[in-house]
Amino acid sequence: MAPESLQSLDAILNTSLTLLAQLQTALTKIHATPNQPSSNTPTLTKEGQPIDAIALARDSASLIRAHTTKLSLLVVNEPFSAKAVVGIVRDLVGGPVPGLASALEECTPDRYTSVFRKELAWCCRTVFIELSGLLSKVPRDGKALSGSKEGFGPDRKGSIAFTGVLWAACDEVTKLANLGIGGFLKIKVEEWRDTLQDVMEELKEWGDEEAEDEEEGDEEDEVDQLAEGLQNAHLSAQDMVDDMMDSASAIPKADPDKIRPRLETSLKRLRLVTILYNAIVKRRIKKLPQLPPPATADEDAQNVTKRLDEAAAVLRVLPDRCGDLACAFYELEPDEIDSIMDQCFLDAFAVSELLGRSWDGGKDEFTEWTDKFQEEMKGR
């Protein structure tokens, strides 16, 4: 094989890997950056319309998948053709790779929401990571990978098995693009709701446990049981921690700090909050206007993405905050319970207020529902 061909292969691989590393860094920053409006002006097509970032991401991911399928076959078949590999890599870095990066540039928060942009950035970053892995395995000595030198995974099944990871990453981009902004947000809100329901169920089960008898005889029995457990080789450290935590967190029968009334109030409100999540999906997410909004959209339509980002920020953090509330209950800390409980339900109020009006700024059935929701929350 001509030395020039190997030199060209070496050069294009080095350039490509450097580019992919830079893109990974940029996309990591996008995913980690707090929600901020973008000042970028959308690039227009020949027809004068903004470029469809979602379609561009889908098409670019599909092309990367197709090109790397060819590449993975070339590197394990004899005779190895450095020229053919160079051609495919050049096509990758000259088309779909920058295309996928451009999709993120066009996927501005003010048109596509920050929450969707961050998810797309993360999916695209994964594609670039896996593509870097594949390119780093391309042989530079002019000999195809075969047998013990194949090196495409612990099971040594070849490039198709290794490339399957990259295919999956490309498929995730396609899946996200096919969902669109509304479909993605629906799934996320339902996931956050499910987490919230899990917290609520755990709290309910904890509250339903019968308070332990604090008589001296029972305490002595408990000490004896723990001592026996320490001698039991089958009792793990985690089992002992769980036993001690369970014992410490039970609500005393006397309940001097009024933990149980607080628990009952919190559970009632948490149930209302989970209903709010369901209502948001049904009455707001499923009835989203066109996103991204057309260039001719009025101010209300352009504010939809801002409202969605503000609501998503609260809906995402509420389950975590309620998890903190559960911990405060388990530790029997009344002041901490009151503080976190107030913040949880202030957040729920804020979301209901933010999404109370329809997307065009008017009142509708959901507006009336949120008014009743707020009244119920106050009354609990």
Q: List the helices and strands in order.
A: HHHHHHHHHHHHHH
CATH names the topology of the largest domain as A middle domain of Talin 1
Q: In CATH's first tier, which class of the largest domain applies?
A: Mainly Alpha
Helical residues, percent? over 70%
Count of domains? 3
Assess the beta-strand content as a share of residues.
under 5%
Please give the count of helices.
14
Oligomer: single chain
Instruction: Give the biggest beta sheet.
Output: none
Named CATH architecture of the largest domain: Up-down Bundle
Q: Whole-number radius of gyration?
A: 28 Å
InterPro entries: GCIP-like, GCIP-like_N
Region (Disordered): 206-225
Protein name: Cyclin-D1-binding protein 1-like N-terminal domain-containing protein
Domain Cyclin-D1-binding protein 1-like N-terminal: 59-208
